[in-house]
Amino acid sequence: MTKRRTSRSPLGGALRRAMTAMARAGLRAGGRMAGEVAGSLAKQAVDAAAARLRPPPGPGDWITGQAIGAGGARRYFLFRPPGVSNAERLPLMVMLHGCGQTAASFARSTRMNRLAVQGRFLVLYPEQDRRVNPQGCWDWYGTVTRQAHAEASTLMAAVDQVCLLYPVDRTAVAVAGLSAGAGMAALLGTLHPERFRAVVMHSGVAPGAAHSAVSALAAMGGRREPELPAAAQSLPPLLVIQGDRDRVVAPANGIAAAQSWAAAAGAAAAEPRALRRGKRHPAMVTDFKLKKRLVASLCLVEGLGHAWSGGDARQPFSDARGPDASKMAWAFVARQLDR
């Protein structure tokens, strides 16, 4: 039996050669495309890392450091105004960023460094480790696990280190924060009241309102009341800045923070006063005083969401239309330093 041979048409061979060539070209193009995508992603990662370290604009020094405490190691950045000598002793403002922010972006948002140049004080910006919290949130609520206290201990280690290495007046230290940073700032004020002359909370939850991640969500929704420690009578003065359209931290939290701080000291609320500056969002300010001593002040900003009031609109969680929270914060601190 003879074997039948199948002849191949010239057209079929040409089609096969064309398909093979197209496949090889596609693979080469895919390789180049994959390389371009990988290169682009690598560049984005490098740019993001560089942005985290890039100093905010303006004169002065942007100094990098690291502190180690019970909560592990945390990087920090210190802003030092130009011309500061080691013979001086300057106030220190500790600024705690919120979730989704870095130390550098918070500095750009608040523009606190500009005020530091004018008012001649140092600014410390601790930064949360994204390996500890991927969103960059400070643990202001983990009091049952003691993680909140551990992070607070590390932050105090940063304050102590800066006070040791730089010309800081240890009796003139204040702490401020936004969102999770506000909750941590208030926690530091209750754990170490003797170390801070003033506390500033912007859009945060007061200590004792939450003890776990689950209860933190309820507290942020305004469904839990703060519980200050028994020794709260000695707390430093508190400024609360809160937007009435905050959809992340319910406005009730700001009100409860100021009221609980005042109640712990036996302070009474004065008559609210209106604050309006140009076309910025208006606000109502209520002071809580014990005799003539200011215990707490609540600034409720109309139309403000979950953002730093008066901050740089190009930065996350900033609203340039609000009254300048940085100026309010430093003015509040400066008044306490003058006492």
Automatic annotation (TrEMBL):
Pfam entry (one): Esterase_PHB
InterPro entries: AB_hydrolase_fold, Esterase_phb, Plant_Biomass_Hydrol_Est
Keyword tags: Hydrolase, Signal
Molecular functions (GO terms): hydrolase activity
Record keyword tRNA processing present: no
Protein name: Alpha/beta hydrolase family esterase
Taxonomic classification: Bacteria, Pseudomonadati, Pseudomonadota, Betaproteobacteria, Rhodocyclales
